[in-house]
TrEMBL record, chains A, B:
<dbReference type="InterPro" id="IPR011059">
    <property type="entry name" value="Metal-dep_hydrolase_composite"/>
</dbReference>
<keyword id="KW-0378">Hydrolase</keyword>
<dbReference type="InterPro" id="IPR013108">
    <property type="entry name" value="Amidohydro_3"/>
</dbReference>
<protein>
    <submittedName>
        <fullName>Amidohydrolase</fullName>
    </submittedName>
</protein>
<keyword id="KW-0732">Signal</keyword>
<feature type="domain" description="Amidohydrolase 3">
    <location>
        <begin position="72"/>
        <end position="548"/>
    </location>
</feature>
<dbReference type="Pfam" id="PF07969">
    <property type="entry name" value="Amidohydro_3"/>
</dbReference>
<feature type="signal peptide">
    <location>
        <begin position="1"/>
        <end position="21"/>
    </location>
</feature>
<dbReference type="InterPro" id="IPR032466">
    <property type="entry name" value="Metal_Hydrolase"/>
</dbReference>
<dbReference type="GO" id="GO:0016810">
    <property type="term" value="F:hydrolase activity, acting on carbon-nitrogen (but not peptide) bonds"/>
</dbReference>
<dbReference type="InterPro" id="IPR033932">
    <property type="entry name" value="YtcJ-like"/>
</dbReference>
Amino acid sequence: MIRLATSVLALAIGCWSAAAAADTLIDNIQGITVDEDGKIDNFTGLVIGDDGRIREVLDRRDKRPRDIDFQVDGEGRFVIPGMIDSHLHVMGLGFAAITLDLSDTNSLEEAQARIAEYAAANPGRRWIMGRGWNQVKWGLDRFPTAAELDAVVADRPVWLERVDGHAGWANSAAMRIAGVTEATADPAGGRIERIAGTRKPAGVFVDAATDLIAAKVPAPRPADRDLALQKAQEILLRNGVTAAADMGTTIEDWQSYRRAGDGGWLKVRIMAYAAGTGAMELIAGSRPSPWLYDDKLRLNGVKIYLDGALGSRGAWLKRPYADDPDNTGLPLLTGSQLRNLMSRAALDKFQIAVHAIGDAANGEVLSAIDELAGTYEGDRRWRIEHAQIVDPADIAKFGEHGIVASMQPVHQTSDRLMAEARLDPARLEGAYAWKSIADAGATLVFGSDAPVESPDPFAGLAAAFTRQGADGQPFGGWRPEEAVTRERALAAFTSDGAYAAFAEGRFGRLIEGERADFVMIDRDPLLATPDELRATRVLETWVGGERYYLAANESEDAPGNTSAR
Amino acid sequence: MIRLATSVLALAIGCWSAAAAADTLIDNIQGITVDEDGKIDNFTGLVIGDDGRIREVLDRRDKRPRDIDFQVDGEGRFVIPGMIDSHLHVMGLGFAAITLDLSDTNSLEEAQARIAEYAAANPGRRWIMGRGWNQVKWGLDRFPTAAELDAVVADRPVWLERVDGHAGWANSAAMRIAGVTEATADPAGGRIERIAGTRKPAGVFVDAATDLIAAKVPAPRPADRDLALQKAQEILLRNGVTAAADMGTTIEDWQSYRRAGDGGWLKVRIMAYAAGTGAMELIAGSRPSPWLYDDKLRLNGVKIYLDGALGSRGAWLKRPYADDPDNTGLPLLTGSQLRNLMSRAALDKFQIAVHAIGDAANGEVLSAIDELAGTYEGDRRWRIEHAQIVDPADIAKFGEHGIVASMQPVHQTSDRLMAEARLDPARLEGAYAWKSIADAGATLVFGSDAPVESPDPFAGLAAAFTRQGADGQPFGGWRPEEAVTRERALAAFTSDGAYAAFAEGRFGRLIEGERADFVMIDRDPLLATPDELRATRVLETWVGGERYYLAANESEDAPGNTSAR
């Protein structure tokens, strides 16, 4: 009341410029961003308005604003744009995280204890689901039994997949629900383990017999889905990922995203690509959705699968697999089916993302784009997902029609030995050819394919410029000529990831006017050794000016964080 | 600039009270609302803030605010709360409106002209769909033919239902798509009309044979759905309806509502009741949705069908139909199925709306509510939809557990002769028993069941206090002891309709703080004769402070409307 006039004036200013009175200053940082020209730019402070957008990017000599509500002293730490993962499965990541993982158990007893603990911690789950057990690792010379599961969980069905996915372990409740009894015959292609000397099912089901139980597992309930979404967001934020291209969004996934948006708990930005044109139409109608919830969610387009994966020899190749001479893999769609789906989506201005792993698949998508680009003009940003094995003769075509190559650096390091087995060395010239594809003129963007790989983008960055795995192998890098610079890798995980999802100008760079999505880390990603980079500690993750992740021993009360309120 | 200090002060006030600078004044009106005690209250002016809420309700002697941006001079006309239709089918209403209606054609030639005109006006529709033709009315002694349709529309399939729904008329394109040829046999229970002396299908399909074509009609595309929603909103607004309980919302319906909300073209408030528990879960998850888009949309609960309708003898009766002594109708669910569905929804706090027409169905829902109310405590507002035929012995039960009786006045006037045929007079004591049910203590709310009946709420109001049809029949009203007062009828179409959908305090009354949803009409609904009331002209319809409907010869530039900007 003493300062009435000033208060009134402050309020008035608040009216003209709604956020001035609620700015946040992130100061004393070593800021790194890709700028509007694709170059690296540095800064030492950020001013964030209460609309969650960057109001000012400050250099060392810039004057700091005086009316700041909340101030963070970065103590010289590094700040980079929030990482954008251009290819992952948000709900898959979340479900993997809330499913019991037995892969690191070393004995049946340890597994039993883990199962009991999980069941106790999840009283609301109607089925206990898990994976990863391996009786060989446990030192058992037999499969485990239903009775051994009943001993720890008898009140609810339990169904646990073996590490290889080729067998499952059920308790008696699960078998009862599935109606499996002595009278149940082994299905074609499958085997029901029986108690020695009897017909009584023992609890383990092999290959096709797993369906006897798996088919009875109820679809997840909305509460399960929401929990998975929450977990996925936690994991992404902990890894410094603030935006994710969700590849294969179902209506159920979308409804979870909307519940999160409506309920105010959508934290990570989701650029969704529907699981097929049916889901696309049901989710968004006859146009991509608007950006919803302050740019947190949009249905951009559709994900279309053209082939399978290399490991299972489902990738569609121009010539047979080196280790399977009668097999070239298979396209999942005919040429006209592919074009029809692409046309249907393109007609309604949806963005198209085609999964193509093998060189035949990539060649086919490139042809299809070339044919359709004349009809569906304008800024389409045709995406090819994975683009793992490309015929060198086709690489130049990535430079046409504004194609986006959405690739996953860690796949290269995980898959290289398998790829060498599947293909002759001569056919690996266009394999994981990040640099050649980018140099051809494609927009190169990076992702993790989580939960297939870890969503950690720093592992991706390290692979991107070294072509080496976390073990440092192979020495000098695998086909190192396809490595990209750190700067290009950072762009592929930030600004170019935004562009690939029509989000440029909204987020992806730390420049005035964009959403304040950033990560505070403990080392310089442009200078750290690959090993150091992989060990990067994410200290804080901010999305739209909100700090959604703070590393455990970073505290609100730490000297570096002061509130001006 | 001259008045800086004042401007600053004004801005500062603007900050505290964001809408003060953008108020709307509706003045010089004869305002009528149901007040918080359920009594009629009168007023002469409304001040609406720019948040779309009522800021002030003014009496004649109240001072008018000076800073008003937009002012409407009501010129003494009547203003009532926006009407709430507590039972209709929003998308059904819209689709009916965009489907070709031939019911008023008097010759084949007239019908052909109408079809050609409709096809030309709807170039984007893949199928031309229509209904209502009647060759008898046309003076034809035969069915029309495919060739006669081809003569006006040959480029697209055409499928037109006969007025009774028991036959359909296809053109050649439709028959081609359906694969109907000379070789197609008549299905059981159906007949394909043939060209005399040949096996060639003539174009008309009777009873079960209609499925041969109908099954090929593609599901509406999102653009069709959005058009239907737009039309439904236009119709409702034109009728003075500002909020609608949508009974049987599918995921496709919901997605249209969300597109409208996201795109800023959702005008009518929709309180949705999902088409079954599956749709409920998919739409909202494990709790009713929040109120979205400034109280424009909420998934409240689930619609459950317990029986059919009286006309088709599908309503479930305690004793056989008078005109079908072996038939009592049938429940669509067993007692335990009903209770299971209700429990599943109630467990997750969804509101439950059960369709019950016959006295057995009503008795069964009342029992189920009585049994479940102990388990699912709190404010549940169990809804019984229609409640048409109630055993007088059961009426008192409507007063328990806070039951909402959602009834449709016009059904009584349309159905009375049919009801008398179906049931003995003695069994009509509890038929359309609005007053008895309300007096028992239920919350009585009214709706139209559009598109089954017209959505015009003034016809509903007139029926409610007269028990007479638009023709004034029967003299003195049908079972006039069940008429309600005009005041109670108005509450059932406004404030109580809001309560029935958990919307009280948000809209439904014209009192300070509620959304400014109101209708300007040309006569006094509390004094007009029934005939006058049915002829009410809706002049303006406002939702949330936005005028979404202005009658054709009312103009923005009319002397009564002045903008202060």
